[in-house]
Hints:
Two copies of one chain form a homodimer.
Chain A: E1 4-10, E2 14-21, E3 26-33, H1 40-57, E4 66-71, E5 74-76, E6 81-84, H2 96-104, E7 107-112, H3 113-124, E8 133-138, E9 142-148, E10 151-152, H4 184-187, H5 189-203, H6 215-223, H7 227-251, E11 255-259, H8 266-280, H9 283-288, E12 290-293, H10 300-316
Helix pairs in contact in A: 1-2, 3-10, 5-7, 6-7, 7-8
Amino acid sequence: MGIEVLAVDLGGTNLRMAVVAENGHIEHRERCSTPHVNDPQAIVDAIAGLAELCHKRSSTGERITILGAAVPAILSLGEGKIDRAPNLPMLDGVPFKPLLEKALGIDVILENDATAAAIGEHWLGASRGCESSICVTLGTGVGGGIMLGGQPVRGPDGTAGEIGHICVEPNGHPCGCGSWGCIEQYASATAVVRMVGEIMAEQGTVADATKPLTAKEVYAAAKQGNRAAVETFRQMGSYLGLTLAGLVNALNPDAVVIAGGMSAAWDMFFEEMREQITKRAFRVPALRVKLVRAELGDDAGILGVASLAHARLKQGI
Amino acid sequence: MGIEVLAVDLGGTNLRMAVVAENGHIEHRERCSTPHVNDPQAIVDAIAGLAELCHKRSSTGERITILGAAVPAILSLGEGKIDRAPNLPMLDGVPFKPLLEKALGIDVILENDATAAAIGEHWLGASRGCESSICVTLGTGVGGGIMLGGQPVRGPDGTAGEIGHICVEPNGHPCGCGSWGCIEQYASATAVVRMVGEIMAEQGTVADATKPLTAKEVYAAAKQGNRAAVETFRQMGSYLGLTLAGLVNALNPDAVVIAGGMSAAWDMFFEEMREQITKRAFRVPALRVKLVRAELGDDAGILGVASLAHARLKQGI
């Protein structure tokens, strides 16, 4: 059978768990809705329940001894504490690792979800074989994870990788983080919906006010040649390229991986993004950097923490 | 006597060499003007000449076996080649390491000058004891070096650390690098001279056209309360803070070290720089990061390459 680990991706909507073999093969999956009650123990119990199901239903003979958990939060990795989880505020300040270890009776490794995705893509996805890579997750917000020398960059507080909150417009749109003009305000699904409205207003087009658009609808409109929608994705690509050009100059990565739901709009923003990088970054690192779409989809985070768990087991042996 | 190494800082104006002990003590110094003729061999010969002087005039008994060289260039470290040296164009494309090794008859280590300064400050200067730091050199241009986990970030092409060419104004001033709106256009000595002119024009102040200002004069004017000069440094601090806030979010460093000639204007831009970082970066990494002035002055690069040379000797033993 080989060695297996448990890996969980704690999302704002779903809790997804998998049993993952040493080669990254997903042996078994379980999922449930993320409990949204004002008690962190509800989430701990839900994870423990999924782990129990994984043990019962998967073909694993021996009991698995470690769980990797990808968490949408700023973590104090030393203490295994969640500092701030914007989408799961009941976890703010919670000593999540000790709680999980007590409930599951096995070792737990926590990782920020965006960093976990970068590790996963580095292990088995779009940036495999690359020593250094930047993984940008375009979703409701913009997340990021940085790998240098084959290792994730976490920083002393574990907060490194917050690429979504690099400023691209000094007097730009206010951001949920407290700053303004962050790339998250120009390249997330939320941003696309706001921007298309602004651009329609500029163009004098009247939007159908009875039906708020979704990012998916803006993309569909762009595919049909709608001017405002096309311009929205052009601007998104331009701002994203500007941000990435700065990171290419600062870090000289082998690859930039674009992940998250908004990466589905790749064909509408890629050309402008690449052009900005080509025009703005130094020639040598701009030629070097591979610009690629993520390959692991929703499994990137799970595979990232599974990779950490397998590495921990190997160190232990 | 202990082990000694040679270290040279190849500047656009001066060539400065030192004999450096294992503890960083500078035992002996030599300097000469940087030859500006269209022949790379002239620079190689000048360095060999200084090395000979160091051997003769210093009290070193044994012949030193290694030279570290801080070079103002983008390097291909693998081949020991200079890709591009904007201020010493006769070195573009030159296999500098083999040429130096042939002329001096000893091992040579090349390093980008801004990265060397970051290593020097990490070893013996303002960021000693810090695992991760960002060193920003504010001079004629804006250079940078990044240390993570106690090691310099070079990237596969050796071009990492080019913080000066992160964009802060999407439609900003054209930059020598080919991009536009780079922080170099808002925080270098060159930028300060341009900006004070722009601000005086906005304020309707007439500049004395017979006498172009220097950055030093703009600073002196700011110290005396000149409105345009004060506003220039406020804007410089604001843009610098915006850039650093992004790097604090992306890399979560222990320290940011401000080096270079323009760091002398620290008291005129520091408050605004700090305020932008506090307002824009995440709370935890913003509280973490120490904002400090460089301590090693012109010796940062020399000490940085000396540290690399000593490390190489230790590996060799």
